[in-house]
Amino acid sequence: MPENSQQEQPRRRQARGERRIAQLLEAAASVFCTTGYTAASTNAIAREAGVSPGTLYQFFPNKEAIAIELGDRLMHEMRETYGEALAPVDPTTPLEEAVGAAVDRFIAFNCDHPVFFALMHGPDIPGRIAEEHDALHATLVSRIEALLASLLPDAPPADVSRTAHVCLGMYKAGLELVLAHEGAERDAYTREIKNVLIRYLEPLVGDRLGTREDTGAATTRTP
Amino acid sequence: MPENSQQEQPRRRQARGERRIAQLLEAAASVFCTTGYTAASTNAIAREAGVSPGTLYQFFPNKEAIAIELGDRLMHEMRETYGEALAPVDPTTPLEEAVGAAVDRFIAFNCDHPVFFALMHGPDIPGRIAEEHDALHATLVSRIEALLASLLPDAPPADVSRTAHVCLGMYKAGLELVLAHEGAERDAYTREIKNVLIRYLEPLVGDRLGTREDTGAATTRTP
DNA sequence: CCAGAATGCGAGCGACCGCTCGCGTTTGTC
DNA sequence: GACAAACGCGAGCGGTCGCTCGCATTCTGG
């Protein structure tokens, strides 16, 4: 066997094909959003895209590949949009600013791409997407850990890691609440999730950074 | 038609039948826990219980009825175990105690009955269970709202309601973290979720109740 | 003891779903 | 214009799943 074992050349595509792929992915995003991954049928995706099931399988080898391609494009767009903006956290940034900026960015992305949440948090996602989600999750946790460690050099690593996991968990729960509302209420929930995180972290780093002085935004009601 | 339109008398059962029902529900709980509701096949439940599919359908009209009966029994046990202990909240109780006790109770119940979480938070649950979940959710939210309103009589109802929803959302996310760990780590996460809630609520009610004096448990590390 | 109800079985029905296959149409290349 | 490759179709294959049906077995009341 002189050539290609396990290989599969990506097949020559015409512009029409690329358009179909984008069309199918858009339809898949819509169907995944409304029914979740497992309940979404490939025939329904094809119907939503206005093509036949056979056409769908011209471009994707199976159902999982659709979700994977969609996930990859979302991940790529996420990295492209926010780039390394979420990589290095300047330890001199006030806590409120750092938390607020990070929350705003991720919430904005999820509001723009609701399928991202559906794919990442469905309990029935295919293995490959779960891996990507775990990788993203681990990346975010270690970013938070690094930030916390720089603020609390004396804290045991186990505590830092636990705190980071709690922060991410609270953020995710808040994201769900935010996505469930719209307009002004959505903004109000966004503020609340920031408050949760800031007040949770404040006692840990409050004696190290001046986050208490007179920012005046820590309490939203009864002003 | 003098009798029974739409009615269905619950059919006379023998002791053997009641035992089979309990056996089937136990098997269903196990299967639902590991695969979720939708992915759980009735044949798998019957196999797990050591009976034939036909026997299963002797006692349950369809798959949804199994989940509903399981949900009803869990709800009943929940009310029986905690009774009205979660109904009236004495407004003079310190915030930390009230939050800590409520969190401990619900976490204990969920640790004892992991299928409860699987049934209530699966995205693919049948309509009836979703209704029960929504009812429980609404009940808990209004309990929290009542407590908050008694502490903050001047706050706008919309803010109180939002804060209650945030509390419950944070608790649920914390529950997921707690269930994902065991032993000492599980206890540590339990403390963290209490901290999240207490610190989130403290600034709102801190000037009304003395929760700040010297309980000394608000911070777990770097003592 | 016996009639009838309750219990138990498991092959299999109908529906759906992921996916294929054969064949016709469009597009790019020389 | 000719040829091959990419595109497009939709009936239908194989498989799973929820659920049924006919029949055998066990229990209960009289």
UniProtKB/TrEMBL annotation, chains A, B:
<dbReference type="InterPro" id="IPR009057">
    <property type="entry name" value="Homeodomain-like_sf"/>
</dbReference>
<dbReference type="InterPro" id="IPR001647">
    <property type="entry name" value="HTH_TetR"/>
</dbReference>
<keyword id="KW-0804">Transcription</keyword>
<keyword id="KW-0238">DNA-binding</keyword>
<feature type="domain" description="HTH tetR-type">
    <location>
        <begin position="18"/>
        <end position="78"/>
    </location>
</feature>
<dbReference type="InterPro" id="IPR041674">
    <property type="entry name" value="TetR_C_22"/>
</dbReference>
<protein>
    <submittedName>
        <fullName>TetR/AcrR family transcriptional regulator</fullName>
    </submittedName>
</protein>
<dbReference type="InterPro" id="IPR050109">
    <property type="entry name" value="HTH-type_TetR-like_transc_reg"/>
</dbReference>
<dbReference type="Pfam" id="PF00440">
    <property type="entry name" value="TetR_N"/>
</dbReference>
<feature type="DNA-binding region" description="H-T-H motif">
    <location>
        <begin position="41"/>
        <end position="60"/>
    </location>
</feature>
<dbReference type="InterPro" id="IPR023772">
    <property type="entry name" value="DNA-bd_HTH_TetR-type_CS"/>
</dbReference>
<keyword id="KW-0805">Transcription regulation</keyword>
<dbReference type="Pfam" id="PF17928">
    <property type="entry name" value="TetR_C_22"/>
</dbReference>
